[in-house]
Every structure is written in C-alpha cells, then in structure tokens.
Amino acid sequence: MRSAKTHGPLLRSSAALVLIAASALSTGSIAQNGCKGAVYLTFDTGHMGIAPLVAQVLARQQVRVTFFAADERTQDGGSSLDEHWAPWWRARAAEGHEFASHTLHHTYWQADVRQGGATAFRVKPSAGPRAGQSFTLTPAAYCQQIEAAAQRLRVITGREPLPLYRAPGGKTSPALLAAAKRCGYTHVGWSSAGFLGDELPSDSHPHQALLARSLRSIGDGDILLAHLGIWSRKDPWAPAVLEPLIEGLKARGLCFRTLAEHPAYAPLLSGPRP
C-alpha cells in the first residue's frame, strides 16, 4: 500500500498571518448561536497532498464543507478516488460533509461544436486515459463523465452525492449546462469574493495577501473555492491560510454551511440528508 506524502512544516505561518488572524478575532467572540450570515466552503480535488491537514482543520473548527471530486493524479502516485484514498473519503462522510461530482477525469469544456446536426462539446480532460487530449463528447457522454464521479463517491462513501456538479475551471456554456440539467445535475460555481486564490503562484500571491483579501471581501451567501492540493503553488495554501480564514470569518459572525443547506440548492434534494 502506498503511503500518503507528508509536507513537513506546512504550518510555517508568518508573523503577518498571525497578526491578521488576531486582528480578525480582536473584535470579540461572537456567540455561536448568533450567526450573522452563512458562507459555503467547497473543496475541489487536486493532488491530495494536503488533504489530511485540511481534514484536521475542519474537524478542529467543527466546519462542514462540500467536496467536488474528480479522479485526479495525486502526489502519492495514484488518483484521488482510488482505493488508497477511499478511507479518507469515508471518514469525511462520517463527519457529515457533503459530496458532488467534478467530472470523473476532470474534463474541461473547451467549446460547443456541431456533430451530426446536434450540439456536442469539445473537451480536454486533465486526468484519466486521455489526459491532455482534445476530443468531442456528445451530451450523453458528457453526462457519463459527471455520473461516473458521482457513482464512485456513492461506492466509496456509502452516501448519496448531491445532484450538483462543478465543471473544471468553471468553464461552461449554456448548452453544456442544459445537457447536465437534463441528466439531473445542476452546476455550481463560486462567488467572486469566494475565489480564495490557492491556485495562484505563492511568490506573487503570498499567504498573508490572500488571507487579508478574503477576510475583507467575503460576505453572507458567498460560495468559497479551495482545492485539496495545487501542483503549481509551492507554498501550500492550506492549512496555513485555511485555519485563520475560518477563525476570522467566524469572528465576523459568519457560519459555515454545506451546499445541501444553500437556499438555491436545498430544494433539489429528494429528502433529508442522513
């Protein structure tokens, strides 16, 4: 069995990070039963190298999130929905987190095309057997990409995924969204303020700048986007920014909810969540 990589001293929080978090908390402790608004933290899969540390922060802060999962290449030599990572996903299900599809092979939409008199989609997956190749999928085949990730989550977690999905990169077209809707999936992006910046280069977008911007701009109703590991960011965003961000937003009276509790998406659920 492979062992997941550790990252050593990932908690190299700078003095600036500590000061920002302390400033956010200095306004006084907000009573836990007095939410002034809700935010919806979501994680897309990635190289999974920081996934155990993310889970520790979420458990410590008692925050539940929504994970959008694709079967992406991981730092430990496998993929994010393989058997090696299955116990990690099951543990998150037991903690009450929610799950949704990110397409099985992290399949980017590139363009709408005409094929046989009908609309089809040129796509380019970043994972799976055709990673890096551009080719055309029919609407039905694109739906299979969405459903395959959802089915894998069902098998791994024993929990029904939400009838939601997130297109990689947030890249869509009206025809793509309509095709997904016809096969039972509603697309969820993220708020402008909710782009947490963990995809950005760490040399030009240091932790303290990302944290300050997020604490300044995030408000009630925002959907937040982060990842379980970004290959291009050399100084990992989580947990260094994640925990002070959660603490700072809580200090402002914002409570964390899953997308199962979002007013736009809760009506799509067929019944109460377990």
Question: How would you characterize this protein structure?
Answer:
By secondary structure, the protein is of the alpha/beta class. The protein has helices at residues 15-25, 51-61, 86-94, 139-157, 174-182, 207-217, 242-251; strands at residues 37-44, 66-69, 98-101, 107-115, 118-125, 135-137, 164-165, 186-187, 223-227, 254-256. β7, α5 (174-182) and β8 (186-187) form a beta-alpha-beta unit.
Major sheet characteristics = 5 strands, parallel
Q: By helix and strand content, what is the structural category?
A: alpha/beta
CA(first)-CA(last) distance: 32 Å
Succession of helices and strands: HEHEHEEEEHEHEHEHE
Overall morphology: globular
Radius of gyration: 19 Å
pLDDT averaged over residues:
89
Q: Provide the low-confidence segments as ranges.
A: 1-32
Number of helices: 7
Helical amount: 25-40%
Strand tally: 10
The proportion of residues in beta strands is 15-25%
Name a few traits of the molecule.
single chain, five-stranded parallel β-sheet, three-stranded antiparallel β-sheet, 7 helices, 10 strands
